[in-house]
Write a structure and sequence with these properties.
By secondary structure, this protein is an alpha/beta fold. It is built from 22 helices and 37 strands. It is globular and about 90 Å long.
Length: 688
């Protein structure tokens, strides 16, 4: 067994006031560095905590949330890009908006981990009470009053109650989880003491046998996400000072306590059910959290209520936000979950879908931007197409260019006219670092690439094969297959990987087998999103079918479920294209266009008439949700019949089913003309 870590000082270091009164929570530590490299090359130039999310620097959300929880002092720890963060936090708007809040930066440029940061803060002696510990990439609406009171009460009774960590209940595959963020915890149901904390890499999670023996009532949960929001006693920071080898809060300190390497201390859990909290830990969660803000899941942290100095927004139907002083052509189409920043100029016939446009941007006529993030003061020429990408400040993309999925165009880069930027391209004005450079992408220069170029008069030879003859930028290494789950376009997540955890035959601890949880409709939603994106972006049918096949494996679903989800998605999209008041002629035209191309995505997974009947039964509910389709359901059935999606036996079995549901009766009544025609045709064939 590993040697015991030092814990004596933590147990005796000023835990309470002399009179035993509970300590008042007034302090917070914000770790502005993530000590990771998920946003390269962007964070080589600008710290992640200052990247815009919903056109607001990310750290604004964190400080706004801390202020709402009556925190009086915030210590913002920064190592890389410290000058940028310090300058930003000195802006007058902070004092104007939060006059009661004292914000102070703590700078240590040699720090490479959260453990180093906490040791540095301990050496300064600024933490004098219980405190909130959070990363500067956190977006949260959680009210901490209940958790703080519970932490105080425990600390008063038990000086070993070192830490209360906040866990949020979300489905295992929730979009705000970072890739691989599958967690199993064991919690004492009576006291909320955290007994086990295991990252799950397979379908099996391990709970030590000693834990099961020592506690009578244990809740084992796999539906909780670690928000990395902690309420800490002052002793918490002493443990990092005493154990200099501790670098990671969860892996080192929390596991050390749970494995009894640090004696006499305990960790407790505070579980939230409804409130929002997530970290922008990678590109996928950047996309997911941005969408959550636009969809108002983070209320009251929504665009029209947020933060002085970021512009004023009007909220429109479909989760569309338009700032003041925007020039928007009448023929521009801004579609669902989109935002246009202040001072932006949008030309004629521009399509903006599921995207955020930053302040001061110019977008030329007939351009199309889908699920992308255009940051501040960018210039987008005419007839430009951008999909699933991040375009940083002051980027220029000239006429006729296309930017494929999962590209990052860092600060000040430029793409020449009629250039096609390949998928997963990363561009920067800075040269690609050598193997000898520091591994942490946040060990940055303190200025953006274009500022460095101006200061140093850099004359780099740009990759004209990538950026075009009039372009400017260096191609950085693309995202490889091992990091594909960190891509903007990869908006799905598996709760478990294909492999099991390593089975150690020498391990005598008891194991509890965890069944894969139900997806709560997640599979159907994601198939709908996949098919919708395929229709909107005119993707090859084979590519979309491949994605649906991947979802089937991820959710452990049957082949027929793919067909059920695909047909439901196609019917929903047909209804969406038409509108509820559309004439039958219009609906038939859209149905013909969609099903002629996409019906194979339904038939691909079907092999028996019984499965085809299952698909028709499932379609009953889709029609109930979109009653406009009843007008032309005989026509739709005929198309499905002609495309071999369904056959005579399946249709007759579906029509004859003794199902008394309202949805089934309505669908059968709508389809009656075609069913009768098919029945008569079958009778005539038998007579012949």
């Amino acid at each position: 067994m590993a040697g015991k870590k030092r814990g004596g000082n933590a147990a005796n270091a000023g835990a309470a006031n002399v009179d035993g009164a509970p300590r008042k929570i007034t302090q917070a530590i914000v770790l502005a560095d993530s000590f990771e490299r998920q946003f390269s090359p962007i964070t080589v130039e600008v710290p992640k905590s200052l990247l815009p999310v919903g056109n607001v620097p990310l750290i604004h959300y964190t400080i706004e949330w801390l202020a709402s929880n009556a925190v009086d002092e915030v210590y913002v720890f920064c190592a890389a890009h410290a000058r940028m963060i310090e300058a930003h936090l000195r802006l007058p708007m902070w004092r104007e908006r939060f006059p009661h809040l004292r914000i102070q930066t703590v700078v240590s440029t040699g720090t490479i981990s959260a453990g180093d940061a906490l040791r540095d803060i301990h050496s300064r002696g600024v933490i004098t009470s219980d405190f909130i510990l959070v990363y500067g990439d956190t977006v949260s609406t959680i009210g901490l009053t209940e958790a703080l009171e519970a932490h105080r009460a425990r600390a008063k009774k038990d000086r070993g109650a070192l830490l209360t960590t906040v866990l949020r209940r979300v489905p295992p595959r929730h979009e705000t989880r970072s890739p691989g963020d599958s967690l199993t915890v064991a919690i004492d149901a009576g006291t909320n003491q955290l007994l086990a904390y295991e990252a799950v890499t397979g379908r099996t999670a391990r709970v030590p046998g000693a834990v099961l023996e020592a506690h009578e009532d244990i809740a084992i949960r796999h539906d909780l996400m670690d928000t990395h929001i902690d309420i800490c006693s002052p002793e918490f920071i002493f443990l990092f000072a005493d154990n200099f080898d501790y670098q990671n809060i969860r892996r080192d300190l929390v596991q050390g306590i749970l494995n009894e390497e640090i004696l006499g201390n305990k960790v407790f859990a505070h579980i939230v059910e409804e409130e929002f909290a997530a970290r922008v830990s990678c590109l996928r969660t950047y996309d997911a959290i941005s969408k959550c803000i636009l969809r108002r899941h983070s209320y009251p942290l929504v665009p029209e209520k947020l933060l002085a100095g970021t512009g004023s927004y009007s909220y429109r139907r479909g989760n569309v936000y338009i700032a003041d002083n925007v020039q928007l052509a009448r023929t521009t189409d801004v579609v669902r979950n989109s935002m246009i920043g202040t001072g932006a100029q949008i030309g004629e016939d521009v399509e903006i879908i599921d995207s955020i446009i930053g302040p001061g941007c110019e977008i030329g006529r007939k351009s199309r931007i889908v699920n992308s993030y255009i940051w501040n003061h960018c210039v987008i020429g005419e007839k430009v197409s951008i999909t699933n990408s991040i375009i940083c400040d002051r980027v220029q993309i000239l006429r006729g260019c296309s930017v494929a999925s999962d590209c990052i165009l860092s600060y000040g880069t430029k793409v020449g006219p009629d250039t096609k930027v390949a998928a997963r391209t990363h561009l920067s004005l800075l040269p690609v670092p050598s193997d000898d450079d520091d591994d942490d992408d946040e060990r940055g220069f303190g200025e953006t690439g274009d500022e460095i170029a101006r200061m140093m008069d850099l004359s780099l030879e740009y990759d004209t094969d990538v950026v075009g003859t009039q372009g400017a930028g260096q191609a950085w290494p693309r995202a490889d297959e091992s990091s594909k789950r960190n891509l903007l376009s990869f908006r799905r997540q598996r709760a478990f990987s294909d492999g099991e955890m390593d089975d150690d035959p020498t391990d005598d601890s008891e194991e509890e087998e965890m069944e894969e949880p139900e997806d709560d409709g997640g599979f159907e939603r994601e198939v709908l999103e996949t098919v919708t994106r395929g229709l909107e972006e005119s993707l090859p049918v084979a590519n979309v079918a491949l994605e649906i096949g991947g979802l089937r494996l991820a959710y452990d679903r049957a082949l027929v479920d793919c067909s059920v989800g695909a047909l439901g998605a196609l019917l929903s999209n047909i209804a969406g294209l038409c509108g509820e008041d559309a004439a039958p002629k219009t609906i038939r035209a859209h149905a013909m266009k969609v099903l002629k191309k996409w019906s194979s995505i339904v038939s691909k997974y079907l092999s028996t008439s019984a499965e085809r009947t299952t698909v028709l039964n499932a379609a009953d509910e889709t029609l109930k949700q979109h009653p406009v389709l009843y007008k032309v359901y005989p026509f739709i059935l005929q198309l499905l019949y002609e495309k071999d999606v369904v056959d005579e036996d399946a249709i007759m079995a579906w029509a004859a089913a003794a199902d008394g549901s309202e949805a089934h009766r309505a669908a059968c009544e709508a389809a009656r003309p075609f069913v009768e025609w098919l029945r008569n045709a079958e009778s005539e064939s038998e007579s012949d």
